[in-house]
């Protein structure tokens, strides 16, 4: 089974809470605060493993959560950081943020890695809140929540050469001849329902990877047939080998087929249509194909393409084609990637995102929400005067008091802060 797409949920570990503790050594009656910080939560990391060929493992397990950080302890002991969670993926995997649809990573080389969900920071212990005027703080900071998101993984084959063309033109047969790949072959459309990858050995130290891309028909770019699922696998190829059935035995015009496939490439991605192409007329061994090939070659060469004739069934012209492909690959060298990776705003601006505080009014009640406010509530001991004062100061520093005033709040009005009811006093 070939699995080339998976949607999974990832969550970084939560940070551990800071501790409230005091020095208790003998002869130290006023030892002061000694609560340690919480540990950071683990990250969720995608890492390339060249031993993998599909995303099958991610089809059955959908949720991945990194370990949390340990809470701080007494004697200023820090909590242990949560271990990172490594998810192994095959080379050629691209990563999309499910919510925005952005491509945020392109993982192609062995040991390539990407932090897809960052763990939360550990909270500070009460030792960190001691000042000259607040020498015995009875509160600590809560740990930060880890980032969570849905992501979509897509596997794009790492092939140098892509075999394209209408169904049943001989792509799978050619692949089975030139490489050790064993694709399913039969005389009906869509025999091939998954991309097949093979390696062609030209000479000692000279080889290339070639992929049979199935499902290309008119309308493939918009989802018709199987083409839209498999067009993505051509994106990494350097050279396209375009096969046409020169016999016309299925009632199709080879020239018309050639133009339709190229139009699909252009509609899917214009840069893809500009990839170097070698045009191959297959089934030259069948009767009455010589005249068809002559007309086809004249027409296609006018457009600047190189045209070759082969018979995949009898292997006529196949060896010459292999050498031509190898020569073209050497001539082309590296090609521009058409996979555009965007900055992962959601990940690297996590801290700013957490400051998305919502202050709103419903009827006569005011509401304050947001992850940073939740963290502040977790860190507050409302029975302790110092902690309550710190809480009020943070509300002012975050601009929440000013935003409540702008909404028209008055003395003794009710304010709901993350589920807790307060009365407003200046």
Number of E strands: 18
C-alpha Rg, in Å? Answer: 32 Å
Helix and strand element order: EEHEEEEEEEHEEHEHHEHEHHHEEHHHEE
Distance between the termini: 66 Å
Q: So how many helices? A: 12
Unreliable spans = 184-193, 219-228, 349-354
CATH class of the largest domain: Alpha Beta
Query: What is the mean pLDDT?
Result: 83
CATH-defined topology of the largest domain: Rossmann fold
Indicate the proportion of strand residues: 15-25%
Number of domains: 3
Binding site for Mg(2+): 172, 192
GO molecular function: GTP binding; GTPase activity; magnesium ion binding
Organism: Anaeromonas frigoriresistens
GO biological process, one term: ribosome biogenesis
List the SSEs and their pairings.
Blueprint: E1 5-11, E2 44-48, H1 57-60, E3 63-65, E4 85-89, E5 93-97, E6 103-107, E7 113-117, E8 148-155, E9 161-164, H2 171-178, E10 196-203, E11 206-212, H3 227-230, E12 239-245, H4 254-268, H5 270-273, E13 277-282, H6 290-301, E14 306-309, H7 318-332, H8 345-348, H9 350-353, E15 358-362, E16 365-369, H10 371-378, H11 385-397, H12 400-406, E17 414-417, E18 420-423
Parallel strand pairs: 1-3, 2-4, 9-11, 9-12, 12-13, 13-14, 16-17
Antiparallel strand pairs: 1-8, 2-7, 5-6, 5-8, 10-11, 15-16, 17-18
Give me a quick take on this structure.
The chain has helices at residues 57-60, 171-178, 227-230, 254-268, 270-273, 290-301, 318-332, 345-348, 350-353, 371-378, 385-397, 400-406; strands at 5-11, 44-48, 63-65, 85-89, 93-97, 103-107, 113-117, 148-155, 161-164, 196-203, 206-212, 239-245, 277-282, 306-309, 358-362, 365-369, 414-417, 420-423.
């Amino acid at each position: 089974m070939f699995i080339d797409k998976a949607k999974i949920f990832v969550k970084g570990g939560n940070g551990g809470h800071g501790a409230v503790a005091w020095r208790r050594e003998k002869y130290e009656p006023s030892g002061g605060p000694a609560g340690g910080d919480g540990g950071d939560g683990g990250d969720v990391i995608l890492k390339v493993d060249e031993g993998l060929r599909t995303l099958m493992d991610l089809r059955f397990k959908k949720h991945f959560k990194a370990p949390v950080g340990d809470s701080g302890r007494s004697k200023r002991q820090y909590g242990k950081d949560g271990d990172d969670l490594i998810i192994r993926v095959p080379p050629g995997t691209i990563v999309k943020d499910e919510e925005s649809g952005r491509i945020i990573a392109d993982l192609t080389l062995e040991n390539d890695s990407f932090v897809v969900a960052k763990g939360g920071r550990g909270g500070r212990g009460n030792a960190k809140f001691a000042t000259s005027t607040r020498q015995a703080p009875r509160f600590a900071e809560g740990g930060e929540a880890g980032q969570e998101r849905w992501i979509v993984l897509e596997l794009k084959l790492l092939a140098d050469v892509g075999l394209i063309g209408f169904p049943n033109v001989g792509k799978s047969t050619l692949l089975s001849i030139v490489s050790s790949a064993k694709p399913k072959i039969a005389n009906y459309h869509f025999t091939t329902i998954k991309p097949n990858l093979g390696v062609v050995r030209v000479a000692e130290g000279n080889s290339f990877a070639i992929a049979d891309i199935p499902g290309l028909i008119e309308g493939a770019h918009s989802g018709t047939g199987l083409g839209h699922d498999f067009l993505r696998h051509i994106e990494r190829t350097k050279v396209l080998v375009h096969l046409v059935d020169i016999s016309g035995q299925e009632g199709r015009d080879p020239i018309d087929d050639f133009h339709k496939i190229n139009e699909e490439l252009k509609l899917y991605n214009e840069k893809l249509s500009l990839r170097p192409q070698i045009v191959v007329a297959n089934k030259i061994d069948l009767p009455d194909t010589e005249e068809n090939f002559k007309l086809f070659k004249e027409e296609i060469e006018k457009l600047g393409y190189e045209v070759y004739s082969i018979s995949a069934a009898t292997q006529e012209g196949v060896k010459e084609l292999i050498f031509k492909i190898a020569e073209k690959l050497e001539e082309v060298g590296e090609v521009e990637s058409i996979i555009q990776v965007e900055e992962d705003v959601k990940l690297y601006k996590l801290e700013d995102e957490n400051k998305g505080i919502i202050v709103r009014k419903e009827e006569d009640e005011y509401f304050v929400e947001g992850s940073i406010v939740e963290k502040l509530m977790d860190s507050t001991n409302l029975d302790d005067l110092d902690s309550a004062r710190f809480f009020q100061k943070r509300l002012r520093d975050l601009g929440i008091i000013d935003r409540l005033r702008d909404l028209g709040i008055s003395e003794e009005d009710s304010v709901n802060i993350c589920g807790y009811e307060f009365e407003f006093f200046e």
